[in-house]
Structures are given as structure tokens and as C-alpha cells.
Amino acid sequence: MISGKTTLIAHIGYPTESFKAPMIYNPWFDKKGIDAVVVPMGVKPEDYAAFLPLLFRMSNIRGALVTMPHKVTTMSLVHETTPTARIAGACNAVLLRADGTLLGDQFDGAGFVRGVERKGRSFRGARVLVSGSGGVGCAIAASIAAAGAAHLSLFDLNTASVEGLAERLRAHYPQLTVSTGSNDPAGYDVVVNATPLGMKEGDPLPFDVERIAPTTFVGEVVMKTEYTPLLKAAMARGCQVQVGTDMLFEMIPAYLEFFGFGTATAEELRESATLKY
């Protein structure tokens, strides 16, 4: 039950229809007796820079979850960012600190990597292809590099974005081989769709699935449906896969700690969640 004492966590993005976080956080808060609530807030890109500072003028807000298309823009709207966010070039969490300043952090990549590794697939020494260099793609690439990948191939139609990510990765991980310009999935141990392709019916697949080997692990960030067309096609080829919400469940414990609400395991969160597709 929301009251005048309830602490708010904004969930900001556009559009909001595919948001899953409220159906994970809010049942968890209820189960634990925590007087807090995650509230979806649809904000168009042209309004976001003006909206965010005003949001944090509220007296009952603790922080914000930030999703597409605002993760990169958020970097310039907070007072301080963590090293993880700076490497990723994007942040998906904002904390209002006691002195009124905003701290931006990034948990997408950690959530994705933890989910894959919990399924028995290691990134150490691996060849990985990541398609998409927006906020989530940059974060995933940064965390994969930190997990010990040997070769990271990046693809995005936005050349400036993908080359900027490649430069940051080379600067922070000189031992890592980084290439750009191709989304051919042949020859990789792991391929990742970090684009919005799959959110809309009729979207083309982000990869030529016929070029994906059955031994390749295929990861997805789209959460519109549990098994996207990409994952269904990959599974038909015998690939092991990770659904988009796995990344979400694995990163939420880090979010809870960031916002000062304790912690949880992914399994505990799944038990209380009321996810619907």
C-alpha cells in the first residue's frame, strides 16, 4: 500500500509498455515490508534533460532506474559517475545522495555477465560479438572485457558510437583485441543482441542465424517477450541462450544495495516476481 511515507524509485524510459522491473521490485518490497515503490515514468528524449533535475527536487524520491533511450544522456545530467559507468559511457541507476547531488552507476553489464556465467559459460579467453553500442550494449561490452574475454567484436549502424566504445575498451583493457564493423556471428563463442530489434513484431533478426554455430551462446536484452524470435531461432540450432529478464534478475541485487534497501538473490526475486509478457 502506497502512503505519504512511501519512498519512490522512478523507472524512466520511453516507451514504458515493456517495463518488467516494477513486477520484480514491488512484490519484493511488499514481501520484505519495505515502504518503497518503483514507478514507471514515460519520458520522451526531447523532455528528458529538463525532467531529470526536477524529478530529484521531490522530497520522497531515493533514486531512479534508467532505461532506453536515456542511459547515455544521463551521464551528463548527474554530478558524479562511477568508473563502471564511465567505461560503459552510460548509466542506468541514479542515486540522490544526502547532500543533494546525483550519483550515476551502471549495472546492465554486470547483470548480463553474471547470468551467463551462472549458466556455466565463461568469458575468459572467449571471442564475443556484441551488436548494439547504446547504453546497454556499451555496459555489456565493458563487463565482458572485465570478465577476461580475448576478442570483442562490436557492431552498430552508428559508427561514431561504436568507435567511441572501441577506443574506451582499448584504453582500459590493452590486452583485449577489439574489432568493429561486422555483425557476422560466425566463429564466436558468445553473440549478444544489445539492440532494440525484437521489440516490435516484424523486426528483422539482428544476426544471420544460419551463421551461428550450435556451440555458440546467444544472449538477448529485449524483454518484450521471454523468448524473442532471435532466441527461438538460436535454440532451434541447438544454442544455449539467455533471455532478457535474466540480466534484470541478476542486476537487481546490486541495485538494491545501491539504493540502500539491503540485498537479495536472483532466486528469491524470481519467487516473488509477478512478471507477465
Notes on the protein architecture:
GO terms for molecular function: NADP binding; shikimate 3-dehydrogenase (NADP+) activity. Pfam families: Shikimate_dh_N. Keywords: Amino-acid biosynthesis, Aromatic amino acid biosynthesis, Oxidoreductase. The chain has 277 residues and is an alpha/beta fold. The chain folds into 2 domains: 7-107 and 248-272, Rossmann fold, CATH 3.40.50; 109-245, Rossmann fold, CATH 3.40.50. The protein contains 10 helices and 12 strands. The protein has a 6-stranded mixed β-sheet with strand order 2-1-3-5-6-4. The protein has a 6-stranded parallel β-sheet with strand order 9-8-7-10-11-12, with helices on both faces. Helix 7 links the parallel strand 8 and strand 9 (177-180). Helix 5 (108-118) crosses helix 6, helix 5 packs across helix 9 (244-259) and helix 9 packs across helix 10 (266-272). The longest helix is centred in the C-terminal third of the chain and has 16 residues, at 244-259. 43% of the residues are buried.
In short, what is this structure?
InterPro entries: Aminoacid_DH-like_N_sf, NAD(P)-bd_dom_sf, Shikimate_DH-bd_N, Shikimate_DH_fam. This protein has 277 residues and is of the alpha/beta class.
